[in-house]
Amino acid sequence: MRILGITIPDEKRLEIGLTVLFGVGRSQAARIMKEAGVPMDKKSKDVSVEEENKIRVEIEKMTLEGDLKREVVGNIKRLKDIQSYRGIRHSRNLPVRGQRTKTNARTKRGARKTMGTGRKVAEKK
Which phi and psi angles does 2 have, rounded to 5°? Predict the structure, then answer.
């Protein structure tokens, strides 16, 4: 089963398999299945053509994948352009949502670089 050019895994339940699409999480996938009238426990290999088309119609109503990624990047660019606090944090590659940075923040700031004393070992004569 392919939706928006992405292959949905055959062996997983469809509710879980839909989460491979960027912008679809567990709750969104459950809502799509409910509105399409497809049972939650069905696997994507067991879905009929009519059910697949109903799911596709529901998904096409949403902003997903490339369009959503472009929208997110555009929002971040806008924040940077207007020099907002959040935009500055994005451009400096620091946490944006108020997390502490004295310790932790390793995901955003990268691996720890130990400085030491700063003195080089004196050469022996």
Answer: -120, 135
Q: How far apart are CA 19 and CA 2, in angstroms?
A: 13
pTM: 0.70
Helix (H, G, I), strand (E, B) or coil at 43: strand
- Please tell me the distance from the alpha carbon of residue 94 to that of residue 108, in angstroms, as a whole number: 6
Domains detected in the chain: 2-62 (1.10.8.50), 66-98 (4.10.910.10)
Overall average pLDDT of the 40-68 stretch? 89
Q: Which token pair is 4? A: 């928006």
120 band by pLDDT with thresholds 50, 70 and 90: confident
Residue type, 56: R
